[in-house]
Amino acid sequence: MSEHNKAALLERDAEHLIHPIHSNAATAGGHVWVRGEGARLFDADGRDYVDALSGLWNVFIGHGRGELADAAANQMRELGYASGYAGSTNRRAIALAETLAEIAYPSINRFFLTSGGGESTDSSIKTARYYWKVRGKPDKTKVISRIWGYHGVTLAAMCATGMSVYWPMFEPRIPGFRHIGSPYPYFYDPPPGKTRGQAAADELETAILEEGPDTVAMFIAEPIQGAGGVIIPTDDYFPRIREICDRYEVLLVSDEVITGFGRTGTMFGLTHWGIEPDIMQFAKGITSGYIPLGGIGLSDRVAATLDSADQVWMHAYTYSAHPVCCAVALENLRIIREEGLVEMAAEKGAALIRNLEQAVGGPPSRG
User: Fold this and answer.
1) CA 95, CA 79: separation in Å to the nearest integer?
2) Would you say residue 202 has pLDDT above 60?
3) Which residue spans traverse the membrane (predicted)?
4) What is the rounded CA–CA span in Å between residue 285 and residue 295?
5) Nearest of 110, 89, 97 to residue 304 by alpha carbon
6) What CA–CA distances, in Å, run from 357 to 230, 352, 360, 363?
7) C-alpha distances out from residue 195 to 183, 199, 200, 269, 275, Å
8) Which DSSP string corresponds to 273-299?
9) Are 324 and 287 in contact (CB under 8 A)?
10) CA 297, CA 362: separation in Å to the nearest integer?
């Protein structure tokens, strides 16, 4: 049986694999990818396709980069695995944390590493709850997120995700999660005297007050909503969100799984609006999808609270700080920085916007 016969491969696939977003119908007519090169993918029929979505928003440096393969192989030969639990570490994890501290928001200098975005969301939720317990406010447990926001589909992450299609087959959801409106500038109808961004941000204040400020632990948001429709907020939205979180002592969690590492023309998304989160979470682009890795970064204030606690932070994953994943991430971040991919994204994004505005006769009103 040919290893490159699509029909035979799909038949074998159907016998043994369960896919993400599983559907027999979709799988039967699916692709069998056999090779990637740059921005192109090649399937078992010999056809090639432009990978316009960069995998799942994650193949930042393109397919087939031998540097990442070499980084993984070299690390495997030296140290393929070692536990990252308290009392153990490895050189690649240390170096990656140092690199992340260089490129992250100035107030974020400590990092916990996961295997992907869903684990990162769960880590943010648990960290926020732990933080408030240590601070003497154990009732601050609730999570507020946004309609159309995507934060993963592990059980807690699914409850934060604001896309209801992911809920029915796995309900009941965990209590303590609430969704507010998305800051979609074209559909939002603000009351008199407020901009769309202000009115959208004020929904967070309303939700906090209705739930009770002493019960809300965190607000989680993507700087630019991705899977929910590539929703870009107006410039006054996130500064107001930061003010509201500070006013009611709610941790602001920036979900940078898609926007992190340069996709929006800055290394991280909230930089566009001059604010910093209390917790940031990341995955995807940190390794360009070549190997699973994610994590959360903690502000100095949050990290200091964890360090001062008498109770152990009982949160862990077997593959946290995996040396091979960290080695690949380090090489990937080197390429992103040395090849100027963040600056390139900003330049090409600006050119795309200019061309689109010319095509439609000028920029739309988003105030």
Assistant:
1) 15
2) yes
3) 147-169
4) 12
5) 110
6) 17, 9, 5, 5
7) 11, 6, 9, 22, 19
8) GT---SEEEE-GGGTTTSS--EEEEEE
9) no
10) 39
CATH number for the segment(s) 67-345: 3.40.640.10
At residue 98, what are phi and psi to the nearest 5 degrees? -65, -40
Residue 218, beta-bridge partner list: 143, 251
Residue type, 193: G
Q: Which residues pair with 216 in a beta bridge?
A: 142
Give per-residue pLDDT as tens, 79-96: 999 999 999 999 999 999
List the alpha helices (DSSP H) in the chain: 6-16, 24-28, 54-57, 66-78, 91-103, 117-134, 155-160, 196-211, 237-247, 300-308, 323-338, 341-360
| Residues 264 and 226 sit within 8 Å (Cβ to Cβ) | no
Q: What confidence tens digit (pLDDT) does each residue in 264-300 have? A: 999 999 999 999 999 999 999 999 999 999 999 999 9
In the chain, what are the domain boundaries? 6-52, 67-345
Q: Find all residues with CB under 8 Å of 113, minimum gap 6, and list them.
A: 84, 93, 96, 293, 294, 295, 320, 321, 322, 325, 326
DSSP for 52-107, please give it: TTHHHHT-TT-B--HHHHHHHHHHHHH-S----STT---HHHHHHHHHHHHHS-TT
Distance CA 300, CA 6 (A): 52
pLDDT on residue 184: 87
Give the C-alpha separation, 93 to 217, whole Å: 29
Dihedral of alpha carbons 81, 82, 85, 91, sign: negative
Q: 306 is written with which tokens?
A: 């964890």
Task: In whole angstroms, give the CA distance from residue 259 to residue 254.
Answer: 10
